[in-house]
Amino acid sequence: xxxxxxxxxxxxxxxxxxxxxxxxxxxxxxxxxxxxxxxxxxxxxxxxxxxxxxxxxxxxxxxxxxxxxxxxxxxxxxxxxxxxxxxxxxxxxxxxxxxxxxxxxxxxxx
Amino acid sequence: xxxxxxxxxxxxxxxxxxxxxxxxxxxxxxxxxxxxxxxxxxxxxxxxxxxxxxxxxxxxxxxxxxxxxxxxxxxxxxxxxxxxxxxxxxxxxxxxxxxxxxxxxxxxxxxxx
Lengths: 110, 113
Description:
The structure holds 2 protein chains of 2 kinds. Helix content of chain A is 0%, strand content 44%.
C-alpha cells in the first residue's frame, strides 16, 4: 500500500532561517511526488512536483529513492511562507490513486 | 471564475439524512477527484472520475457514491449520515486521468448533528 508520512505537525522558524519540511513515502513502483500548499483562507494549490525539478518561491525538493524521501527545503524562510504544506504521492503506470500526508503547518516568525 | 467551484459552502444536517455535494471542474479538465478532510484523518482520497467514467477508488464508504455528468460536473452523494461524516469535502480537477497536477475547489464543510 502506498503511504506518505510527514512526521512534523508543526514547524516553527524565524524569518531568514533555513526550512526543511520532511516527507517520507512508501510505494512499490516509481512514484510521482508533489508538494501542495494551503495559505490561510486560500485553496490547496500545487507548489512543485519532482518531475519538473523546478524551484518555486525559493522552495526545492529532491526525490531520494534510496531513503524514500521528498523533503521540501528553502534556504531563507519568509513570513509569507507561513502555511500548511502537504506532501502527496501518485502512483504511475496506470495507478493514479493520490495519497496525501497529514500536512505540516509552517509558521515563520518575524 | 474558471476555477473549480463547489456548492454548497456549508451544509448542516442530521444523522440519517442524505446530502448531495456538487463540483464543477476547471474549464477543459476531464478528471474530477473527491477528498474528505477530517481533523484526525487528514486528506483522504475518495474517488476519481475521468470523462464520465470511474477511474480510481479510494477509501469511499458504501454509503457514499459519486458520478460525473456529460457536462463534466460531478456530484458526491452521502447517505445515512453519521456524526463521523462531519468533515471538509474537497473536489479537485485535472486535465488528464493521471494525477499530475490537481486544482482544488474551496471545499464544502459538512456538519452532521
